[in-house]
Amino acid sequence: MQVLSVTPEIFPLIKTGGLADVTGALPDALAGLGVATRSLVPGYPVVMNQLKKKKTVHQYPALQGGKAAVHAAEVAGLDLLVLDAPHLFDRPGGPYGDATGADWQDNWRRFAAFSKVAADIAAGAIAGYKPDIVHAHDWQSAMALAYMRYGEAANVPSVMTVHNLAFQGQFAASIFPGLGLPQQAMALDGIEYYGGVGFLKAGLQAAWALTTVSPTYAQEIRSPAFGMGLDGLINLRAADLHGIVNGIDVAIWNPETDKHLAATYGARSLKARKANKRAIEERMMLDRDDGPIYCVVSRLTWQKGMDILTAILDPVVATGARLAILGAGDAGLEGALLAGAARHRGRVGVVIGYDEGLSHLLQGGADAILIPSRFEPCGLTQLYGLRYGCVPIVARTGGLADTVIDANEAAVGAGVATGFQFAPENAGAFHHAILRANALYTDPAAWSSLQRQGMKADLSWDRSAQKYAALYSKLLSKRDA
Ligand code: ADP
Predict the structure, then answer these.
(1) Ligand 1 within 6 A of CB of 21
(2) Cys staple from 269: which of 100, 224, 265, 418, with CB 3.0 to 4.6 Å?
(3) pLDDT at position 101, please?
């Protein structure tokens, strides 16, 4: 079975969030199940620079205002198709915006072009390659399914995966003529959305099947509170909606071999984590003591509940715990956290920025990881935490609810607890969860049993990949019916 995965990010080439981890890891997990994945990605400078050998497999004299080509290449074991369109992707800054974080004004054009190329490939644009399934990820790829639906690949089964419903790709109706779609597409059951054009909406409408990255989030997005305006459509399509929880790349996230750690360890050598804790203290200028260090590795945003964290910073420090925070995002939250670090020298360490290595060290040395998200489609950092014995303290929502077992008395007694959950997502409940963690931390045997239980969990992609493969097969039967 040949699957074309259409994605704006793929680890290790380009990553701003969990989406990249998923699209980077899934191909390998599916390979063992007889599913061959080719991944179409935009040719951002960081991607183009990593292509050593490439073969041009398709060319466009004009694609949304410039020449473009599709190159086939293999990088890090990934079978890539790269859309080389310098007028759209060869620019400094991030994948979606400039260095200041402001979105590129022509994002609609960039990702419409990208999506159109995916639809062309689905229709056979590349000699000798015809995907059986097209799997689109998030709004940047969603229009592929609309181009397929209104073009030549309407009979190719498709999957639309939502990694975060908050990012929808909504644009003014005035872009419609630039998309090159037939007039009939600008309709309520097409790409039209509240008077404008909705890229994700178009994909949700056109896809043969919809998935999101955890069962709880799949339920939550059917409600107005989490549906972000799309709950009506999602409910209409509920029979085609699946929640498949993400796995993690257990080769990259392995505390027994992780090169980013000061000391590697396993479930039977948890004491070795201490060297990592000492390294965190040095790196983040924290006092050295034996109390807990709670870490954060996160985008600093409202979604991630980082304002709730700043609200309880002082009381948490007053309990004697230390905080080690790595993140980047909203300027206001960055400022509030830095101010917290200045107020509590030696007790709160903050690194603003994106640092893959430090994110591993924090998981390998901190005692717990704090994830007070307001909503969380799946969440990966709690999964890394489980694997690294860095106990997750999480809001009970989305994928966090699905993957962490709360250390209530019954679960601790039965030896199945893996972390702490709290609800609702407010400062009071979060603070209470931290007090519960502090209390358990004073009992080293109980704490290490919590760590070991988390480390035992099967977080690999195997089970989830089986679910995707089963879904693909089901769609192929539907096509052939
Ligand atoms: P989201 O995709 O919503 O940001 P996830 O938990 O699904 O959240 O994935 C976040 C990914 O990004 C994880 O791999 C996490 O380790 C990583 N990450 C987030 N912030 C940083 C940072 N400042 N430095 C390094 N890695 C980060």
Answers:
(1) yes
(2) 265
(3) 83
Q: What number of other Cβ atoms are within 10 A of residue 93's Cβ? A: 14
Rounded to the nearest angstrom, the distance between the alpha carbon of 15 and the centre of ligand 1 is: 9
Fold of 2-247+462-480: Rossmann fold (3.40.50)
The pLDDT value recorded for residue 133 is 98
CA distance 189 to 186: 8
Low-confidence ranges of the chain (pLDDT < 50): none
Q: What's the rounded Cα separation, in Å, for the pair 69 and 147?
A: 19
297 CB less than 6 Å from ligand 1? yes
> What pLDDT sits at residue 214?
97
Do the two domains 2-247+462-480 and 270-456 of this chain adopt the same fold?
yes
Atom of ligand 1 nearest to the CA of 303: 3
- pLDDT at site 17: 85
Atom of ligand 1 nearest to the CA of 327: 23
The pLDDT tens digits of the residues spanning 394-429 come to 999 999 999 999 999 999 999 999 999 999 999 999
Residue 414 CA, ligand 1 centroid: distance in Å: 32
Q: Is the CB of 354 under 6 A from ligand 1?
A: yes
Q: Tell whether ligand 1 has an atom less than 6 A from the beta carbon of residue 398.
A: no
Compute, in degrees rounded to 10, the torsion defined by CA atoms 316, 318, 324, 328: 60
CATH topology of domain 270-456: Rossmann fold (3.40.50)
Inter-CA distances, 324 with 129, 273, 282, 295, Å: 48, 15, 11, 5
Q: What are the sequence ranges of the domains in the chain?
A: 2-247+462-480, 270-456
